[in-house]
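Agmatine deiminase, Pediococcus pentosaceus. Tokens?
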Amino acid sequence: MKTLDSTPKKDGYRMPGEFEEHSGAYMLWPQRPDNWRNGGKPAQQTFAKVAEAISKFEHVTVGVNDDQYANARNMLSDDVEVIEISNDDSWIRDCGATFVKNDQGDLRAVDWTFNAWGGLVDGLYFPWDKDDRVAQKWLN
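Tokens:
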């Protein structure tokens, strides 16, 4: 991974539209008990259904904490890739990398600082340190 000190816009990159073709979908497995009832079990069933539906059209990768790997692998078909990646909560769009592209189709990833939407003052949960590392780990 190469770190740049410029901005994507300055270098001619833009955020693709949600309607544009992409190569796959990333998800994080829900389990946080203060966010998901019953240890996340109902949410896990729903996430599994969503992952399976998406996998019929594109590659899906689900990141899971090590203590949930066997559970997720058991709930998901072989059509869904499962990887062990430490995380605090399941909102990959907020803590994961943002992919941008230029007019030639080159991709770049942006790794934002994540602090649970407010840090120690107004953050929605603590800790969030694993979430802050999700993008970097995923990209490596």
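The helical segments are 41-55, 69-75, 92-95, 119-122, 129-139.
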